[in-house]
Amino acid sequence: MLEMRPDCERCGVDLPADAPGAFICSFECTYCAACAEALDDRCPNCGGELMDRPTRTGKALADHPAAQERRHRS
Q1: Where is this region: Disordered (predicted)?
Q2: 1-53: per-residue pLDDT in tens?
Q3: What CA–CA distance (Å, rounded) separates 71 from 58?
Q4: What is the rounded CA–CA span in Å between residue 7 and residue 68?
Q5: Percent helix, strand and coil across the chain, each rounded to 5?
Q6: CB contact at 8 A, 67 and 2
Q7: What is the pLDDT at residue 11?
Q8: Local structure of residue 33 (DSSP, 8 states)
Q9: Type and span of the H or E element at 23
Q10: Which helix (H) or strand (E) holds 22?
């Protein structure tokens, strides 16, 4: 199951699990749309392709909440 990380690792913007606009690689490194575009859709950590992260809503989100640990480091 995806962690649904709460923020962009590059700029720190919030990325709610129930909203579109997050991009992830196969290791779940997470970026906002603007940063994914600036990175040419390549993860700077592993070189993997950044893809649209699916959303999690309703009962699924209530039963399996998103991660709370933020990954952005200033």
Answers
A1: 54-74
A2: 999 999 999 999 999 999 999 999 999 999 999 999 999 999 999 999 999 99
A3: 25
A4: 9
A5: 15, 15, 70
A6: no
A7: 97
A8: H
A9: strand 22-24
A10: strand 22-24
Write the single-letter amino acid at 20.
P
* Distance (Å, whole) CA 25 – CA 4: 12
φ and ψ at 11, to 5 degrees?
-115, -15
What pLDDT score does 41 carry? 98
- 32: tokens are 């906002």
| Residues 25, 10: Cα–Cα separation, whole Å | 14
The label of the residue with tokens 């606009």 reads 21
Radius of gyration of the chain from its Cα atoms, rounded to whole angstroms: 12
For each of the domains in the chain, give its residue range(s) and CATH number, in order of start.
Answer: 1-67 (3.30.40)
More confident of the two residues 73 and 41: 41
Q: Do 66 and 49 form a contact (C-beta atoms < 8 A)?
A: no
